[in-house]
Amino acid sequence: MSVSVLGISGSMRYPSETGEAVEVALRGAERAGAHTQYLDLSRIELPFCDGRSDEDSYPESVQAFRGLIRSAHGIILGTPEYHNSMTGALKNALDLCSGADFEHKMVGLIGVAGGAISAVNAINHLRIVMRSVGAWVVPHQVSIANTDAALRRINEETDSPMHERLLKLGGDVAKFSKLIVAGIIDVSGMEEV
Q1: Which CATH number fits domain 4-181: 3.10.450.50, 3.40.50.360, 3.40.50.1220, 3.40.50.300?
Q2: How is the chain split into domains, by residue range?
Q3: Secondary structure in 3-state letters for the chain
Q4: Sequential pLDDT tens for the chain (193 residues)
């Protein structure tokens, strides 16, 4: 059974360390048998979410973005940590979606930070947002500190612990998505407590 996993980089830099980490996680999803697609928010133009009541009145770029979310079985979200949270660009992109776009999707979270503290706060905020739109966040998450050095090691040492954690994250999203698609896990009537 095949599932699709969409990886989204919430960094506005191109290329970015966040994008690199998301792409490694997508390789883990591919190894688990998923079809994958990568989307870099810095490469598309999305307007600011203005809270309009008719979400279908947003431009085509928003409709295309929402379509990618809806068609994916699993999603990997990556963000650099800015001021202890996710990027404004990623939050805006998520705000342009409705809860129905994310409901019952499996989601994996990646945070990157240039300093030694890592990106735990950004990941926690993403987890809260995903819970509010009805998505299911896999327990395993990846927070990368000192991204320049860490990603150099990940790219040079494909057996590094961080590389393995990113592959595992992608694999988990694909595997849990397969269980939902196969009906082995029925989340349609479940609500998070």
Answers
A1: 3.40.50.360
A2: 4-181
A3: CCCEEEEEECCCCCCCHHHHHHHHHHHHHHHCCCEEEEEEHHHCCCCCCCCCCCHHHCCHHHHHHHHHHHHCCEEEEEEECECCECCHHHHHHHHCCCHHHHCCCEEEEEEECCCCCCCHHHHHHHHHHHHHCCCEECCCCEEECCHHHHHHHHHHCCCCHHHHHHHHHHHHHHHHHHHHHCCCCCCCCCCCC
A4: 789 999 999 999 999 999 999 999 999 999 999 999 999 999 999 999 999 999 889 999 999 999 999 999 999 999 999 999 999 999 999 999 999 999 999 999 999 998 888 899 999 999 999 999 999 999 999 999 987 777 677 667 677 888 999 999 999 999 999 999 998 888 776 654 3
Record the pTM. 0.94
